[in-house]
Design brief:
This protein has helices at residues 5-14, 20-39, 44-53, 58-71, 76-100, 118-125. It has 129 residues and is an all-alpha fold. It is elongated, with a radius of gyration of 20 Å.
Length: 129
């Protein structure tokens, strides 16, 4: 019987107190997050893509914080990555405030589609589980 990388990983996963496939998926995600924190924290293209996608989902944002805490115990990589997201949010908020100050106060409506950021659109389509 040949032993592959999958076989050894699957054996290890089966020894965990949860579903082996969920455990392997979590391990892969944590490996990707460690790589992001070690190799790409200062990469401008990563910051641009993260800002454009408007953040991680709640699960992966929490996993990012936990992964960095286990590695470095400082949160600096997470803070650096989120700086660009916060700058984008700041710009969108400033534009929304500027636009809303020109609207009549008695009329309550949704924000203009032109200033609605991607994360508002994403979360408007999906409801959290």
């Amino acid at each position: 019987m040949s032993h592959s990388l999958f076989t050894s990983t699957f054996r290890l996963a089966c020894s965990q107190p949860c579903c082996p496939f969920c455990w392997m998926q979590d391990e892969d995600e944590r490996r990707y997050l460690r790589s992001l924190l070690h190799e790409y924290t200062l990469a401008p293209d990563i910051h641009a893509r993260l800002s454009a996608s408007a953040d991680f989902c709640l699960r992966h944002a929490q996993m990012l914080v936990e992964t960095e805490w286990a590695m470095e115990r400082d949160g600096l990589g997470t803070a650096t990555l989120y700086e660009s997201v916060l700058r984008q949010l700041e710009a969108v908020t400033a534009l929304a405030l500027e636009t809303s100050s020109k609207r009549p106060m008695l009329r309550k409506s949704e924000p203009d589609e032109t200033i609605r950021p991607a994360y508002w659109q994403r979360y408007a389509r999906k409801k959290p589980v």
